[in-house]
Amino acid sequence: MSPFQTPIEYLKGMGLSRADVLKKELQIATFEDLLRHFPYKYIDRTRFYKIREIEPELPHVQVIARLTHKELLGEKHTKRLIFQAQDDTGVMELAWFQGIRWVEKALIPGKAYIIFGKPTFFNGKVQMAHPEIEPYSAEVLQRKGNLTLQPAYSSTEKLKPFSLDSKGIQKLVATLLEQYAKDIHENLPLYIINRFKLVSRVEAYRNIHFPEDAAALNEARHRLKFEELFLLQLKLLKTKLHRTNKFKGNIFGTVGNYFNEFYHHKLPFELTNSQKKVLKEIRQDTQRGVQMNRLLQGDVGSGKTVVALMSMLIAIDNGFQTCIMAPTEILANQHYQTIKSLVGDDFVEVALLTGSTKPKARKILHERLESGDLKILIGTHALIEDKVQYKNLGLVVIDEQHRFGVEQRARLWRKNSIPPHILVMTATPIPRTLAMTLYGDLDISIIDELPAGRKPIETHHLYENQRLRMFGFMKQEIAKGRQIYVVYPLIQESEKLDLKNLEDGAAVMSHEFPAPDYNISIVHGKLKPHEKDYEMQRFIKHETQIMVATTVIEVGVNIPNASVMIIENAERFGLSQLHQLRGRVGRGAEQSYCILMSSHKLSADGRKRLSTMVKTNNGFEIAEIDLELRGPGNIEGTQQSGVLDLKIANIVTDQQLLIQIRQCVEGIFEADPQLALPENQILHHSLQSKDQGLSWDKIS
Ligand code: ADP
Ligand code: MG
């Protein structure tokens, strides 16, 4: 066993009670955890600042200055000792609130000192409270020549009584490195280390804790980031390769009548270049004899459904059955309607299976699936219930992936000896690097253009005091025959408040848009499914002009005549959510609008989100900005993913590195799929070793 899996209490000088709090407070339970408790910053004692150079953002700084006069101010509790200090560029103030008597005796006005502390600013003047201070002399300065970047470790209040503040932790790390540095083994092949000019692993760990200088620290950081991203990609791509080898795939060898008939006689428009490209990718995947696992990303309205349908027709041409799985009944229904209208009558039978399919109809469906007669089935989770048996399911399309887990995908595979090809579609674009990490085991296709002639949605940001203008605009659009969504935020912590928010809003709307001239649908999470459905249907049938809703309408609903999306308290929504909501409009021939209502009080992030929405309609651009604003851990659908528990690398700031590494690892597997070459032996060990700090088990 590697010594780094040793429980932390066995570290020299640790002791049981200290080990205990360390575990509780910082989750440091093993030697490895301590080794990987990296400093959060470094205090630079290599350079001296001039007083004029000191700026508010600086961490601790070091100054050589002469003390001028001193003052004793306040009484009892407010008592403080102030020294003025001066160099040839300016003046600063040093303050002590404790140990005053001692300090007063020790420090001599007129003498020069080396002063070290965290600067603050008051009235434009630099201040330092309780600085470290020692007399300046040439010898002292010489001695300091070998002082370098000092590590600062995060700690907690509870740890301080146990001498486990930053300094205490530093001592432990020093002990650990002293005793066990020899056990830090290299985990990357030599040729990779050389190619990417990396420092050795042990050197990296030494320098991340106790850097020799700034350059060494940078190299250490780079090496550890590299290692983290490299091993993650190695694992992901190995999983992918393994699956490819293990699961054979149905071969869709020919393009036959179904596809051709549809393409030449039924498709009502020209495919966009993006759509053609993706179809080609799917064609290639499904002829290779291995299972396809492809993620299709494209903004709302970019035409993913047609691509899915055409892929399904190829499957049918080759004698297979297909299905589309949607996250909700409404969406399943909508896909059903869309696909039926696209293929027309007497072409290929399309059936719908959801939770509300009656037992009798269900039984017939089951039989027709088992016999293989039924070729296209559309539905919800009901599609993958164990009772449902297909004769030869060849392709499964999953819409809006993040509602279907990996486990559910796997259940589909188990239904056949050869698993069906999987096409996952999502309208939530994910930045490239995130996709590489999160869906590193899937192939990715992107539709990045909208069909020609689509009018971009116009987005406006209005403040509360412009509400009357908004009402006027709504009336004007309704008079033109349009329909309008008004969406309120949903806060998880307070459903009650949400409902109140929505009800208040609905009351205002009803007052402004009274019956019988106007009708309003109200939809929220507290409604029973049939009530919700009833309200939705009224809107779909254009019996109501306004739909007031919480975000329940977020996913997929398609009502082309609804051309205005009003988002209340827009500052409370995340960027990707705003973009998703906006995607509900802009589906018909009319000019569509999105209006973001907010209060005047906006955080910097909130302002950036709203201005981004006004500026661009491009989902990928929005996703990038979202990632920057929120960091990778908060992007929708990623929270539970261990993939993003990165310790030192950051997929936003280390994008370039990640892309390089991805290519490098792909190259390794291409040349040596089994990692059998002698120079790659080390990688087997690295994948199995527990010392890498990544939670492999969480990676699917
Ligand atoms: P998505 O599922 O990506 O949101 P859809 O497949 O529902 O998009 O397509 C949105 C609308 O655009 C549908 O009405 C569809 O028929 C239409 N559409 C799809 N592709 C094209 C195209 N190439 N040219 C014109 N209209 C298209
Ligand atoms: Mg769609």
TrEMBL record:
| Boundaries of every Helicase C-terminal domain copy | 456-633
Q: What is its EC number?
A: 5.6.2.4
Question: Would the keyword ATP-binding turn up in this protein's UniProt record?
Answer: yes
The segment(s) forming the Helicase ATP-binding domain are 285-447
Q: InterPro entries, from UniProt?
A: ATP-dep_DNA_helicase_RecG (IPR004609), DEAD/DEAH_box_helicase_dom (IPR011545), Helicase_ATP-bd (IPR014001), Helicase_C-like (IPR001650), NA-bd_OB-fold (IPR012340), P-loop_NTPase (IPR027417), RecG/Mfd (IPR047112), RecG_dom3_C (IPR045562)
**Which GO terms of type biological process are on file?**
DNA recombination; DNA repair
Select a single GO molecular function from the record's annotations and give it: 3'-5' DNA helicase activity
Q: What class of enzyme is it?
A: isomerase
Keywords from the UniProt entry? ATP-binding, DNA damage, DNA recombination, DNA repair, DNA-binding, Helicase, Hydrolase, Isomerase, Nucleotide-binding
Catalysed transformations (reactions)? Couples ATP hydrolysis with the unwinding of duplex DNA by translocating in the 3'-5' direction; ATP + H2O = ADP + phosphate + H(+)
What does the sequence similarity comment in the record state about its family? Belongs to the helicase family. RecG subfamily.
Role summary: Plays a critical role in recombination and DNA repair. Helps process Holliday junction intermediates to mature products by catalyzing branch migration. Has replication fork regression activity, unwinds stalled or blocked replication forks to make a HJ that can be resolved. Has a DNA unwinding activity characteristic of a DNA helicase with 3'-5' polarity.
> Any idea what this protein is called?
ATP-dependent DNA helicase RecG
- Annotated source species: Mucilaginibacter mallensis
